[in-house]
């Protein structure tokens, strides 16, 4: 039988996971900004607020959310590419 983690350990896991994601975000953002600067290009940071995404994540899992976000990014990329070619 698997013994559940104490609440303090669960909180510690949540915080360390969030900190790891934030650290990765900062590193990737810094790299992209440096690359844009070196290429003399603009850089944009996009935050998506998709209605119901938390519910989907909680019920269907991260894999489904990742597919939704990926498809949304692809659709936006096609839309922007169409605008750029006009």
From TrEMBL:
Transmembrane regions listed in the UniProt entry: none
A Pfam short name: GGDEF
Residue stretches making up the GGDEF domain: 24-69
InterPro entries: GGDEF_dom, Nucleotide_cyclase, Rev_trsase/Diguanyl_cyclase
Full protein name: Diguanylate cyclase
Species this protein is from: Dendronalium phyllosphericum CENA369
């Amino acid at each position: 039988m698997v013994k559940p983690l104490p609440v303090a350990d669960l909180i510690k896991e949540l915080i360390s996971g969030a900190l790891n994601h934030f650290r990765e975000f900062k590193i990737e953002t810094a790299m992209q900004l440096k690359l844009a600067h070196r290429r003399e290009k603009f850089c944009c940071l996009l935050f998506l607020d998709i209605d119901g995404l938390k519910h989907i994540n909680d019920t269907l899992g991260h894999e489904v959310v990742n597919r939704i976000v990926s498809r949304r990014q692809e659709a936006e990329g096609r839309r922007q590419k169409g605008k750029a070619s006009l």
